[in-house]
Every structure is written in structure tokens, then in C-alpha cells.
Amino acid sequence: MEAVSPKNSGNARGGLLPEALWAELQKSASIREYAPGDVIVDAGDQSADLLKITAGHVKLMLVDDGGSGETVEVLDKGAVFGESALTRGAVSMTRAVALSRVRLLCLPGAAIHRQLANDPENALATLAIISANLRRLLQQVTELKLKNTAQRLGMLLLSLSDQNEGAATIKLPYRKQDVADKLAMSPETLSRSFAKLEKADIRTEGHRVVHIGDIAKLAEFCGIDWGDLENVK
Fold it and tell me: Do 128 and 195 reside in the same domain of the chain?
């Protein structure tokens, strides 16, 4: 899965790159926009640019030999993907498709290579950030394996809330089908998981609005310590 959300990285601007390097690279960056359904990068292609979402949502899909795809992740604003641009010859393992109208900040891979070659300290700092992100992703995968479907849904709701306490109302940023895909569930399992969350004071309104009665209560239901709540966001 080629993506890192800056909310979960030590570098809130670049995700994969030191802040000073990220700022320098933005001088050569370009902006691209995609309509819903557009393929941004296909599996097997090499991305020439490191890509950061500045508006919209992108889904990453694993593609089989027949061309059919299965969603493995849905990326929000601020997420970085297209890491194959960082290494010569590497190709994307996933297909990236615009879920909504998407705007991307595109950093040329060639410029990244030049900067890293000319500054060993930035190269080492980049490796350290990538290593930290991989460890964090591995920890998240381990957590997911230990959570039931309702807890996984609850963790997603917590990550979408901008609050750490009290009540909160959130709007799902994409369709429930995409939520189910993101959490590796069927739509039926997602509906059952929402029903199970009623005991954690969760109430839905329409297709996309979710009311959280108490952030702390939902975190407890998900088995998250209060001190670790910020790491979910």
C-alpha cells in the first residue's frame, strides 16, 4: 500500500520527506486535477511524481491479472502516495482512482533524486521518516487484526473526528460502500457493525452523518487508551 497520511507521521507537511526538503521541492511542484473515476496511477506504472492530496479523496486498489480491482485504502486530504517516484525503476503496486474531484500537488521524482544526492543529511532523514512510517503502519495492521469489525469501524470514526473529548458529529467523507471497502468489510457487515456501535452511543442520520455521544466512551469500546487516542487521528 503506497500511502502515508501526514496526520500519522512525524512530518505534517511532507509525510515522507524532511520539512526543509519538502519546502524546497514545492518550488518545482505542479498542480493536477482529476474527475471522479479517473485513474491517477495504475498498478505496474512508475509514478514520475510524489503526489500529495490537497482536495478530495483517492482510493488505492489491488488489481488482479484480469484487471479487476479491490479497494485496500481510501486516502483523505493531506495523504501522500506515489512513493515509486522516490526510487528509480520501482513501479506502483496499486491503482489510484479519484473518488471525488481531486487536486494533487505533484513533486517531480527527478528533483527529489537530485536533492537527496546532493545532501546526504536529507537522504538519511528521509530514510528515518520512511522507517518510522513503516513501523507505524505495521503497528496499525497488527491492531486491526486484533480488533473486531465494530471496533475497526469505531477507530475510523475516531480518526474522522477533530475532537478528543465530549460529543461529536461527523460526516462520512465518502459512500458507505467505500467505507466498507476501506475496512475490508461487506456492506452487510458494515451495517451490523454500526448496529453494534449503538451500545457505544453511536447514532447515524441518513447515509453519511454519524453522531458520537462521547469520544471517550467510543475509545474505550475500541480498546484504546486515552493517552493513545491522538495516535488514531
Answer: no
